[in-house]
Fold this protein.
Amino acid sequence: MRDRRVYRRPYFFEILTIANLLLIGALTARHGMSVIRSIPSTFGFIGGPLTLQLIAGVLVRGVVAAAQGKLRPFLRRLNTIGWWTDSVRLILFGIILVDTYGWIKLTIPVVHPHLFDGELWELDRALFFGLSPNIFFLNLFSPRAVLRFFDWTYANIFLASVFLSFGFFLSAPARRLRTGFLGSLAILWMGGAWLYVLIPSIGPAYYFPDVWFAYSDGLSNTQRLQAIIMRNYQNFLRIRAGVPGISINLLWGVAAFPSLHVGFQALVFLWFRRLWLSGQVIFAIFVIVIFLGSVITGWHYLVDSYAGLLLGIASYWPIGRVYRIREWARLRRALSL
């Protein structure tokens, strides 16, 4: 069985990740920054969670396989040199992918400093019959209890979706499923990151803060996080201006178009569409909540979320075709679920 052997050629996600790393490295080097230098520091806080998600996924699959009397076949699929070498490559390039994405997003103010927030706000109004979708949905869901729901769910659903999806796919016995998922994820994150650079924007809550000040009681957690991330954004600008003694978080860049939170939920939903019915239902709910929450909390314009949906579909479609992901019956047997 091919999955048992070491795959010696580079995977698509490895080629795409390295190409984007070299590109952002060349762009930032012109401004005196080194993206390579930061990669070792991300191994701990990215590689650790990825490894834990893989282990947790294996444990859950093992429990399910044992309940079905299929534990030995499941363990045989995992106890191969090919599965272990793929696991190392997935985690390694997952780290580099996140690092590359972080640098592209963080350095937008240097690479392309113009902001398109005004244009995106007006485009939203034009597409929404002259009304601002942000204001419309804020008024529609203005009761404090409803705002608190979106305030709590937006960040927590995203974290839950990351752990659930990565645990599921990283721990899969089938090589095609694991590498295909990371390939589509690389398209989503790299494509979204360069759209950030092409159409820079910081989001309505930052560009039109007066709209959200009146809702601070219901969106306290969101606005606290928004303040932290904006402080990081400003610290990066201070560092570029030569102010010493300031630290920044690589993963706290600011960009709104497109919404990759929405795009990620849509992408995972498409993966689960025929593979796992419960996962499909869960991520369908996630798509709706994150889509509405992105507009209500002020992280995004409505057009950002539309673009995120389209990007999620575009990231899945070529991988689904090339990797023949429609062969769900064979994949179900390979997953031992």
Observations:
- The CA atoms of residues 141 and 200 lie 28 Å apart.
- Residues 2-335 form one domain.
- The chain is about 75% helix and 0% strand.
- The radius of gyration is 21 Å.
